[in-house]
UniProtKB/TrEMBL annotation:
Annotated Pfam families: OMP_b-brl_2
Protein name: Porin family protein
Signal peptide coordinates: 1-18
Entry-linked InterPro entries: Beta-barrel_OMP_2, OMP/PagP_B-barrel
All residue ranges annotated as the Outer membrane protein beta-barrel domain in the record: 17-189
Keyword Signal attached: yes
Statement: the UniProt record of this protein carries the keyword Acyltransferase: no
Domain of life: Bacteria
Organism: Chryseobacterium zhengzhouense
UniProt keywords, alphabetically: Signal
Length: 213
């Protein structure tokens, strides 16, 4: 399944570049490269319910290529470093404590974009993620003391992750734009799930800035 999904991603990108070569010769818009960065609000959910999720703030940053394939359509593959996971806060004896899971990925979104007007677009597409780090941390937020922190235990997880992204963006100038995207996880992050327990999936809302060269 991993090989099939990766094959589809590579094929989609290859077709996009092939189409770009063809359309560029017909005076179509050129490929534009850029960088982007922003904030992640991530959580973990199971099959049964989306309630009681603990959200964690993180960041994403990376590069992209915007590839026109028609007058109002383009494909945008990206490579990002993206922080996922969740965080829970609770109070004991007047002290506020937190427990956070820090799941860091190299993600490869492949977004299919449609421009309503030249500066405003909507997008949808798959995101492929490769886990690089998994840690957790318990902290006394009242005293700002770290109570416990694990080492990297990513081998306990499925290191390959798939999500579906939906988003939009607006460019204030030809180069600078505001972006927003929600990515819902499709694959289970647990490596060896026992019994009939529910699958756990990554979810993240991202907002940030993009700069095209």
């Amino acid at each position: 399944m991993k090989k099939l999904i990766l094959g589809i991603a590579v094929l989609s990108t290859s077709l996009a570049f092939a189409q770009t070569t063809q359309t560029t010769s017909s005076s179509a818009s050129p490929v534009k490269f850029g960088i982007k960065a922003g904030m992640n609000v991530s959580s973990l959910s199971n099959d049964e319910t989306l309630e009681d999720q603990g959200s964690k703030i993180g960041f994403n940053a990376g590069v992209f290529a915007n590839i026109p394939v028609a007058e109002s359509f383009s494909i945008q593959p990206e490579v990002l470093y993206s922080q996922y996971g969740d965080k829970y806060d609770y109070v004991v004896a007047g002290n506020r404590y937190s427990y956070a899971n820090h799941l860091d990925y190299i993600t490869v979104p492949v977004m299919f974009q449609y421009n309503f007007i030249p500066n405003l677009y909507v997008e949808a597409g798959p995101e492929f993620g490769f886990m690089v780090s998994a840690k957790n941390k318990a902290k006394n937020e009242t005293n700002n003391d770290v109570l416990a922190e694990s080492g990297n235990y990513k081998d306990n997880f499925n290191t390959f992750n798939v999500g579906i992204g939906l988003g939009a963006g607006y460019y204030f100038t030809d180069n600078i734009g505001l972006t927003a995207r929600y990515v819902a996880g499709v694959t289970d992050i647990a490596k060896n799930r026992q019994g009939n327990s529910d699958a756990i999936r990554n979810n993240v809302f991202q907002v940030g800035l993009a700069f095209k060269f």
